[in-house]
Please model this.
Amino acid sequence: MITDLRKPSGSGDTRYAYLVGRVRALERGLLTQRTLENLLRSENLEQALRGVAEIPYWGDVFQNVPPRIYDIDKALVSHYWQTIQEINSHSPGDEIARFFIWPFDFSEMKLILKYRLAGKTLEETYPTTLNLVRVNRFLGGETREYLPDLWIKAINDSLEAYENYRVIQAVEMVLDRHYLEQVYLLAQEMESRVLKNWLLAFVLLAYFRAVFRARYQERKGELMRLLYFPQPLFPEEKFIEMLSAPAEKVAEEVDNFGFDFLLPEKGIFRDDPSYLAEIERNMDNYLLDFIRSYRWKAFGPEPVFGFLWAQSIDVKNLRLVLEGKYFGLESEKIKSKLRECYYE
Amino acid sequence: MIDGLAFALLGSALAIGLAGIGSAMGVGIAGEAGAGVLTEDPNKFGQILLMQALPGTQGIYGLLAGFWVLIKLGLFGGTPVEINVAQGLQILFACLPVAIVGLVSGVYQGRTSAASIGMIARRPEETGRAIILPAMVETYAVLALLATILLLNSIQV
Model:
């Protein structure tokens, strides 16, 4: 993939001065490799949780949280969601916070539709900006109920796909397609060249991830087509071809796209879950490394975006460490799954 | 008909006005960054205030140059000195260094201060170094003020 990695000029966007200042203070709470190693040395989950409490801004997160996976995960997500909301509430932070809100909203929509199609009611709500009352009214037949066009189209497309395929994965595929399409559109309107390239790389890697997972899960090409929206980054024929192509051909295509570094072994692709996990780790590291190069910028959206992405990676890392400790996994095994940190 | 006094007063107004605008913009940018940091860490108020105040000096330099002109013209004493157009233009041009450099350096010092505020937020132990960076921009505002004063002193009225 060709990305424009020209160094940004000194004249940055001072509209982000407040948010950059705020993010600089919050960055002290980001995990570093050393913090992670200290956490890995913990003997059990309780000790690891005490270690997390010593990191700035994380101290209160696990207060009164029972040492159970579900509660820990909820606390992590809620802390991350709160940060996104803080950034979102200050203009022009909302321009970039959208990208971080969508995964929550689309996940919630998936849950709502899954429950509805199963004839159940969703009792517990997760962080989202969706107006659940309106969504439920809309689904209940009150189609005049105001919902943004994005959601009306996403719901209608999802229900139509379910009618045609009669599998819940069809709903997931359609919603994921709408999500990726939104990210792609955001990239088109993004003023920052760095973020534009980053978002395009994100979409491209999401398609790679989908192809690799579909191959392993032996999903049908017909169903996978639901995930695809037309864009010049990843041609449809290539997308469909890679789903069933021999492993050598997949490795060749990855190389053709310029993403050979994603493969743990040069020029070799394997339909193997641990190999896939390593590829996904490399994808996360690539995206972090991309945005990390611009964290020093004094102005502009890049440091704010980078911070939010770094925090999402921190949540992923903490989840790996804390869940690993809960299940008594060896430190080395947990370490092999950890993503890189924003600050070394 | 425009006399020399009008040009001289224009010089004084530009020195005060442009340098003041530069400072206002600079202090504003640094203030925004400072507010962001203080939202998360109110204990840093002292350091942040100092950093925000740094770009404010250009406005003071402009005011000083402007008053210097007014004193030179005898406007404070109530008996204005009569000056011709050539002398008026000389005073106007003498005021330009502090006016122009004050405007530009105020904005850039504000940006540097904002960046340094970020540095203090992330690494509080580096406050000393963080102050030096915007202070470097100050050098040129001081030189411009010096140039304006020397030029004003060399004008015979």
In short: Chain B touches chain A at residues 29, 32-37, 39-41, 44, 111, 114-115, 117-119, 121-122 (CB under 8 Å).
